[in-house]
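The passage that follows is intended for readers who have already worked through the single-chain material. We present the inputs for a multi-component assembly, then the predicted structure in tokenized form, and finally a short commentary. You are encouraged to pause after the input and sketch how you expect the pieces to fit together before reading on.
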Amino acid sequence: MMTTETGLESEVKKEPEQAEEQPAAPELQTQAQDEPATQQQVHPKQEHTEAEKPEELTDNKETLQSTTGEQPSGEEHTDTPTSPKPASPSAQTSPGLGKKEKEEASGKGISRFLPPWLKKQKSQSQVESKESLGIGDPVKEEGDVQEKKSEKEEKREQGGEDGIDKPPEVQRSLPQDSKADEKEEKHSISSAETQPAKETRKDSLEKDVDLKEEKNGAGEEIQKKIKEEENVQKPELKAEKPPGKPSKKMKTVVCKVMMLEGMEFPCEVEKRAKGQVLFNKVCENINLLEKDYFGLTYRSNSDQKNWLDPAKEIKRQIRSSPWQFAFSVKFYPPDPSQLTEDITRYYLCLQLRQDIASGRLPCSFVTHALLGSYCLQAELGDYDPEEHRVGYISDFQFAPTQTKELEEKVVELHKTHRGLTPAQADAQFLENAKKLSMYGVDLHHAKDLERVDIMLGVCANGLLIYKDRLRINRFAWPKILKISYKRSNFYIKIRPGETEQFESTIGFKLLNHRAAKRLWKVCVEHHTFFRLVSPEQPPKAKFLTLGSKFRYSGRTQSQTRQASTLIDRPAPYFERTSSKRVSGSLDGAPVVRVTDHNLVDSSAAEINGKGDTAAKDNGKEPGTPSRTQLELSQESKVVEQQSDGTTAAATGAETSEMEREEEDSQLQKDLDKTQEGVLKHQASISELKRSFMESSPEPRPNQWEKRLTTTLPLLTQGSLEEEITTILLSKESFSNCLTGTFTTTAKRAAEGAGAKAPAESLSPFPSTRPSETLDEKQKSEMGEEAEVEIEETVIEEIRRTSKVKNSPDTTESPAAAIMSGEGEKEPEEEASKASTSSESHSESEDEAEYHPQVAVDQIREETEENDEELGKECQVPAEQQLEEIVLPPPPEVQGIADEEKQECKHLGEDEARSSPAERKTEQEAEKAEEPKVNGEVSHSVPEVIPQVICCSEPPVVKTEMMTISDTSAAQKTEISTKEVPIVHTETKTITYEAAQLDGSGDGEPGILMSAQTITSESLCTTTTTHITKSVKGGLSETRIEKRIIITGDADIDHDQALAQAIKEAKEQHPDMSVTRVVVHKETELAEDGED
Amino acid sequence: MAELMAGFGVFTHALVRGIASSLPKEALRMSSADVDLSRARHEHDIYVGVLKHKLGLQVIELPADDTLPDCVFVEDAAVVCGDTALITRPGAPSRRDETEAVRKALKNLGLNIVDIADDTATLDGGDVLFTGREFFVGLSKRTNQRGAEILADTFKDYAVSTVPVCDNLHLKSFCSMAGPGLIAIGSSEPAQKVLKIMQQMSDHRYDKLTIPDDTAANCVYLNIPNKGHVVLHRTPEEFPESAKVFEKLKEHMLIPVAITETAKVDGALTCMSILINMKSNTQ
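Having made your guess, compare it with the prediction:
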């Protein structure tokens, strides 16, 4: 449902608390939600202040968010009684500040990216008021209330968390529960008001994280790190100490972490803490320095094991799941002997024992016996006939099914290990375990495209395909050009072999899109960790971002090795917990034991419990799925034509999109088939290609043609770069429709793909830039329960280049302008001949993609190849003397990742070629345009937008198209959710188009050079980017269409989301202009349709 | 210290079987050629002699069974790795009974015997290439997917990859191990193609020894104490070019062995023995 912005804001604030309070009544969008009913009354203050904020708050929101977001973390730390040191408040502040800056810099603060226009609207007064509040009086007043509240919350939390019995080991974190609680309460007293202080604290916390991440850099000294961490923590602790302090309010949650020893480690963290915080605490608890091989997992509602992303807030990842985690090995070092510390090997051993006992790591009888015997040696020492009687090992579990025979064999072997120290025994254990073929292979169930059950195994070297136990294929990382997923399909694009001419894409069907995404993530992580020297730069706004929002941010293996060499501490003492306990608990149900720890592998029962809670939560928040589509397309030229039919087009598009869904699925099928063919028969890829192209013959929509046509006049100018960006924000529970839309575009892309060529150049490297900022933001803004889906779909980029070859054709025959299949073909072929690396289909259907980037030193050949490709592709345009105008990247964009730079290079060449004068004019022109665009987007006036509210049946979707087109420079349109009452179903479509500046209409269609669509999907968002390149009349045109779909049951700040999306799009593609924005909102009561 | 997968090529025992008198007429073959039984037996004696006397293996010699014309090719009847023996289910129905005697002999050696209960599975030992780190199973006329699966189930420590074998009887009709990490591979196109597939499927790196004649690429590698790398390969008389290639293996003890007659019924060097390391995992 679309609620007023205020609601949204409140949500933002709530978030910290939400984790616990999720169930709150859905209607209460405000903070009240989080708080128990009794307290609601008290809080009104806060709520009001926030609520009253203007709707244009987007900006505000952001600021708020950042502040709020920080709060919780601060709290967390305060609570932890661990640090005995008295705190000096001053200490906190300094780190905090630094932190804050960092945060902002890191791009977490979306506000930074907000377009100026948006910022304008932000009401300063509010912000100020807020701040003042934080500092001021309200603190105390509220204190009482909050205390109560916090108490309640705490209770709830604890209750919800299955009444955590704090194990003895927990001493650290929970020395005195009561005290801790008290403190917490006190802290909580100052809730929102204390923000500033909190911020600082939080900052310090985050700093911690950041530092670590930064350290990733090459060989930083771990020691240093530790120190830093300590420092960071100290301040936090200090902060806690002063009980009455207003800044103290922090909400903490006790996480239960199942350790490899088989015991639960309760760990208190701020609710808003990022995964890294918890992970660090856990590692610290076990004194582990080489921690990059490890990670935390949690079980989602669907009982899937997921890795906790250290870079993201825990709460947003686990959602409604309990705060239960399992500490596990994430990256199995191929050669454990290279680990620096014995303690690291020890934990690896523990993990492997678990893997073996649970059957995840299959071994032969002899291996079970041998490995088991090393376990005994490590834990019990030398075999002692007196001490070790017959049954002495029956408490251990060496295999999924343990026979007497096996035990005898184990004992027999145990006797032979006399003299081995525990560390040596562990080392021997690992030396043998590492040779097992399934060592370090992360298996995922899948089907090939013929629905045959297979397993996909991700490992250090690449991707393994199993059918039953047989390995039927293997794709080493160097072989893989791209990893992507769309919906429940997972794709890998394979580098052509010696005998093949084309890249092939192989698809697999996962259980659902979450599974696909999970697999994709694991692949990205493994590739980065094992294959790269350093992780890719954190995704910044990127022009041609194709959607992926995820990257591995930790250290790579090479980095962690380097860092490990600097470890300089005496071998830490650690107790080898008797694996008896562990193994004993393993009996029967392999990994599951200990209370209700869901994290451990396979325990359906536990899952059920979770599921219940989850269901509850969901139930509490009545799903008011609303779908909002935001189409942003900028480009004045194009606009004209489009604006004409905006309404019609919009509606048409919408319906057609829906209609096309089917087609799409059909297409999909076809694709699948073909791909399957490749997979199975290794058929010639060219065939595949052909079939692919055939399967997507869909004629291009009129809009498309129009756009193309509009560009003609520009041709004269010579250099021009056009883009069309479409951003679709849609919030809905039934995401299928949306996908349908995207697919349509995808289809187009596919068609275009036939045309081929430079497509690759567009995304030579990881083109998937995580738009995390957007993501997170969105998420944060929506309640936890809100299932937010942002699908950023299509980015069409059309670049015009004066193409020598083609220009004659195009110019002469306007008819050729038609982009649809046949018209293109000729040029297409030419183009395809020109470049060998054709990007036919693959791009058109991923939700997220990842181009494995190769470490230069490791995989030289690969890089070279890549370069070659790049070069080729770049060449084409160069020869043709592209005259493209590239707008100087906005300041924000400076941080562009390397890959992007690559792209930029390409652009740069072109740029260089264009005459400066021309460029200038162009730039100016574009600049002139931009303000317009901004104006458009930013100022959406609620009144202007007709809203159709359909109160009839929920499923009924009414669509209304709103088109605002302005010829003048500034357009003010504002989308206000305020006026949208809560209704069963609502559909609203708003289209903004930039005015046509030069009235240059495209008389001629261009030649489609390439098209690609990339879709990325996260839990909450899906982003699809469609990029099309065409050459027309000697100019190359690149269009980018981006669609974002937000799906959620709860309120979503659509305006914010829209602003975000636009902003992001602009940042990503600084040199392009927004020509069109279409917002489509749909609201309905339907159930959550998400898988 | 015990170690898994150590000592590739280390064998202590060999199982062989005599040549049935029915072989010349009844043994299966891909092309027709007259087999000189006595010469075949003579060559076989030499083969066994090399294993027994030259290499010092304990050789278990099973008597031939004339009702089983192909019984000399014991390799197809069982796959032994470590202390486990998978008794196969040969793809050729006429050969299924060959496993019986082999099974018995292996059991007597104290190996863990695994049988194939699945009637749909077929597996010939000749399609199984064990590299020391993993298995490759040729999917041929004699071996099917199910057979390969069972092999994978039996030897869980190892990756088992399947490779298609179309133009030859067995996977090992054109390749074999010539040393640790060294694959002898025929130079024919199909052979090279299979090698590519194997390389792609493997996490491990292998060196290749390209042998001009496909059939000569089947050799027997052993690592014998005090002798080091030993390779039994086809004689220069049979395959002069290929023999030259083997002769480039400087560090190997090369033993040319002629099997001109059994080769006429698709026999190869590896086919006529099952090599066993009885010390493998017991320490």
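Commentary: The first strand of chain A starts at residue 252 and ends at 258. Chain A touches chain B at residues 362-367, 370, 413, 416-417, 428, 431-432, 435-438, 459, 461, 467-474, 476, 479, 497 (CB under 8 Å). How closely did your sketch match?
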